[in-house]
């Protein structure tokens, strides 16, 4: 059941900065810096963070839409970072992507049926008749009426366009789909429709999602486990309930407290942690912990030594010096908590 | 709560129509509301619900294709629609401050921030160059920008997104406006930066006495800062009430559905998200029936025949709906 489908190890994605007449390399933007995580088959891993933290770059690097600087990404046992040419192409059908802007990712000059059939033409040797059959199946699956097959993308609303994008992603029966902010461009009433569709498809087809989003409420609804990114690094990764109820990293705590809740009585009493300042540039990350410039609980060590990303309690990973201290002082206690929390919370998630 | 005899802004039956090549679009239909001095009113609705067009209509800031086809806008008792060009410029420049969604496109990239603030101060407040400069630095300090005197020399691109939005707020506050219109001011910002701006607005409200109209699609933001909420759908106000009352006791099926579709960040997930099926209305014609009826779970024959009027449903709380959630049947009106 909980087999690992995607294994990301030491993934780095640096973009070079060139300057001057000779276009000499003067530095690099560390968009993704040393990520390690797994995605289990059939789960949804939520990847949250603010704009520029590298969450989309992570998604694209995993699918080899970028060439990662270093590290490995193994999907179903194959390291896609090492693959080239036809070998990589052969892996494409099992890993697909749903994009944020359904307006931009659909060719305006192609009909819906052709857009959905394009992956089939590229990657399968189906006859035209078989393709038409498959397109109809897919349109049914995502809730688009078959009579729309000959229309163009501009004739659809945002939510329907996102359904077209989903149908295209499903065409080749992928195992793993990266959803890059699939609902960010949609209105609230339409978001719920698309999210429910993604959940239904996951159940029916046994899909595994990497769900990239800045919407922490939606991720709480959708994800099995959640990873929080800040400035190119994952600062915390934990099962959903654990992360939202007992966030360990100060950034996660601030992020969660900053999300406004649609309830005036809760809002009136809720304490917001207001972070000072802005996110530093990923071209010049601070020394030590990336979060040390804004952290409300910053210590001298944070500005010198980078904290290691490791497990603090069952399946709950975080990178923070505060936790190291806690452990050395109250190691026994936290271990006891972890043991008691382990079994019930994990069962609660999977059901 | 507040009971001032004269509202700061009083809008009655405002109608705005866009004339486009593919026919008229009735973007604002008979919208009426008022704002008391010092009150913060949140306006929520999805894209195309008419929230921005309503506010731009009352400022007279519409493109040429739009026409205000009816209604009255009174600002402190003065009729805004009857103002001549000079009065209107002074009204927009001095009496009202506006903060737009995207500070990058609403600040001028070729002038430094100091110029953009002092320009306004000199034009509408008649300050000298030196005084305007001093006041501009005070404004930047007020909105929480460190090193205000230095930063007056900087250009918009030298500020981060959150800081740029602070500059926009400083410009909007320059002439001590009595009304601030904020059109999705935090939508383009990250949540931690949004939290900073919301905190700033809460602080500013303690210091300055001005009415604020806060347009947003985020019900969470409204719950945190507004005194009163207007919910818009299809170019109409479908529900209006004090914030606590409206969230605790929503009366219009659209408001209720919106609140139900939102997952919560503080609570464990429910089984499945409630959805609102269907699409928003097209607005090709002025509404003759309830514009939410095709998507409404509770619609009955009267909803398809007659556009509901706004009915009082509680203390300072009204909803434009023929259906009564208390009885689960039609309202007796």
Strand content of chain B: 15-25%
Number of strands of chain A: 12
Per DSSP E runs of 2 or more residues, the count of β-strands of chain B stands at: 14
CATH superfamily of chain A: P-loop containing nucleotide triphosphate hydrolases
Number of discrete helical segments of chain B: 12
Short overview:
Chain A is an alpha/beta fold and 351 residues long.
What does this structure look like?
Chain B: One of its GO terms (biological process) is transmembrane transport. Chain B: Residues 12-259 form the ABC transporter domain. Chain B: Belongs to the ABC transporter superfamily. Chain B: One of its GO terms (molecular function) is ATP binding. Chain B: Keywords: ATP-binding, Cell membrane, Membrane, Nucleotide-binding, Transport. The complex is a heterodimer of chains A (351) and B (333). With 351 residues, chain A is α/β, with parallel strands linked by helices. Chain A has one domain (4-272): 3-Layer(aba) Sandwich (Rossmann fold), CATH 3.40.50. Chain A is 37% helix and 22% strand. Chain A has eleven helices and twelve strands. Chain A has helices at residues 55-62, 85-91, 112-123, 128-141, 158-170, 188-205, 216-222, 240-245, 250-258, 264-269, 321-350, and strands at 4-19, 24-40, 44-48, 70-75, 78-79, 95-98, 176-180, 208-213, 225-230, 233-239, 310-311, 317-318. In chain A, the strands form two sheets. An eight-stranded mixed sheet of chain A has the order 6-7-8-3-9-10-12-11, sandwiched between helices. Chain A has a four-stranded antiparallel sheet with strand order 2-1-4-5. In chain A, a hairpin with a 2-residue loop joins strand 9 (225-230) and strand 10 (233-239). The two termini of chain A are 13 Å apart. Residues 330-351 of chain A have low confidence and may be disordered. Chain B is 34% helix and 24% strand. In chain B, helix 4 (113-125) packs across helix 5, helix 5 crosses helix 7 and helix 7 (161-173) packs parallel to helix 8 (191-207). Chain B has twelve helices and 14 strands. Chain B starts with 8 loop residues before the first strand and ends with a strand. Chain B is of the alpha/beta class. Chain B has helices at 51-59, 85-95, 103-106, 113-125, 129-142, 148-151, 161-173, 191-207, 219-225, 243-248, 253-261, 301-305; strands at 9-20, 23-35, 40-44, 66-75, 78-79, 96-99, 179-183, 211-216, 228-233, 236-242, 311-314, 317-319, 323-324, 329-330. Chain B has one domain (9-110, 155-330): Rossmann fold (3-Layer(aba) Sandwich), CATH 3.40.50.300. In chain B, strands 6-7-8-3-9-10-12-11 form an eight-stranded mixed sheet, sandwiched between helices. In chain B, strands 2-1-4-5 form a four-stranded antiparallel sheet.
């Amino acid at each position: 059941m909980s087999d690992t489908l995607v294994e990301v190890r030491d993934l780095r994605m640096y973009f070079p900065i060139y300057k001057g007449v000779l276009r000499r390399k003067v530095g690099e933007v560390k968009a993704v810096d040393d990520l390690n995580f797994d995605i289990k088959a059939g789960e949804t891993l939520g990847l949250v963070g603010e704009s520029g933290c590298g969450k989309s770059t992570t998604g694209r690097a995993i699918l080899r839409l970028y060439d990662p600087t270093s590290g490995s990404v193994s999907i179903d046992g194959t390291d896609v970072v090492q693959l080239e040419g036809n070998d990589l192409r052969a892996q494409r059908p099992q890993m697909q992507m749903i994009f944020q802007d359904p307006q931009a990712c659909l060719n305006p000059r192609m009909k819906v049926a052709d857009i959905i059939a394009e992956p089939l033409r590229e990657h399968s040797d189906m006859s035209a008749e078989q393709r038409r059959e498959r397109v109809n199946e897919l349109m049914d699956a995502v809730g688009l009426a078959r009579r729309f097959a000959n229309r163009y993308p501009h004739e659809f609303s945002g939510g329907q366009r996102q359904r077209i994008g989903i149908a295209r992603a499903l065409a080749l029966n992928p195992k793993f789909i990266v959803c890059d902010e699939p609902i960010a461009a949609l209105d609230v009433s339409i978001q719920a429709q698309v999210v429910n569709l993604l959940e239904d498809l996951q159940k029916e087809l046994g899909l595994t999602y990497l769900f990239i989003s800045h919407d922490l409420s939606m991720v709480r609804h959708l994800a099995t486990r959640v990873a929080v990114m800040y400035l190119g690094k994952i600062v915390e990764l934990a099962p959903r309930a654990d992360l939202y109820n007992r966030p360990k990293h100060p950034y996660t705590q601030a992020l969660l407290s900053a999300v406004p809740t649609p309830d005036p009585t809760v809002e009136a009493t809720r304490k917001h942690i207001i972070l000072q300042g802005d996110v530093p540039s990923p071209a010049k990350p601070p020394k030590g912990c990336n979060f040390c410039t804004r952290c409300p609980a910053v210590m001298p060590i944070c500005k010198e030594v980078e904290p290691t990303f490791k497990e603090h309690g069952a399946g709950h990973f975080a990178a923070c010096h505060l936790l190291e201290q806690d452990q050395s002082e109250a190691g026994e206690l936290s271990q006891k908590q972890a043991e008691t929390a382990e079994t019930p919370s994990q069962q609660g998630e999977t059901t | 709560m507040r009971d001032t005899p004269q509202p700061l802004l009083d809008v009655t039956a405002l109608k705005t129509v866009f004339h486009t090549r593919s026919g008229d679009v009735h973007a604002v239909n008979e919208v009426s509301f008022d704002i008391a001095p010092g009150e913060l009113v949140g306006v929520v609705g999805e894209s195309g619900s008419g929230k921005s067009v309503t506010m731009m209509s009352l400022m007279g800031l519409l493109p040429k294709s739009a026409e205000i086809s009816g209604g009255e806008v009174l600002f402190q008792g003065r009729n805004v629609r009857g103002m001549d060009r000079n009065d209107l410029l002074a009204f927009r420049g001095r009496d009202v401050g506006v903060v737009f969604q995207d500070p990058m496109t609403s600040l001028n990239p070729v002038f430094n921030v100091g110029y953009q603030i002092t320009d306004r101060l000199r034009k509408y407040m008649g300050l000298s160059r030196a005084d305007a400069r001093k006041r501009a630095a005070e404004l930047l300090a007020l909105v929480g920008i460190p090193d205000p005197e230095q930063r007056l020399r900087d250009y918009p691109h030298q500020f981060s997104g959150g800081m740029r939005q602070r500059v926009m707020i400083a410009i909007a506050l320059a002439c001590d406006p009595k009304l601030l219109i904020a059109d999705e001011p935090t939508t383009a910002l990250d949540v931690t930066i949004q939290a900073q701006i919301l905190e700033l607005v809460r602080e500013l409200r303690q210091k300055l006495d001005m009415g604020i109209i806060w347009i947003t699609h985020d019900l969470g933001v409204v719950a945190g800062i507004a005194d009163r909420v207007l919910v818009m759908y299809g170019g109409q106000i479908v529900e209006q009430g004090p914030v606590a009352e409206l969230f605790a006791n929503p009366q219009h099926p659209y408001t209720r559905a919106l609140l139900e579709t939102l997952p919560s960040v503080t609570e464990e997930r429910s089984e499945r998200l409630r959805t609102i099926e269907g699409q928003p209305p097209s607005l090709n014609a002025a509404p003759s029936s309830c514009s939410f009826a095709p998507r409404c779970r509770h619609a009955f024959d009267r909803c398809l025949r007659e556009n509901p009027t706004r009915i009082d449903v509680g203390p300072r709380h009204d909803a434009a709906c023929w259906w009564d959630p208390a009885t689960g049947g039609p309202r007796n009106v």
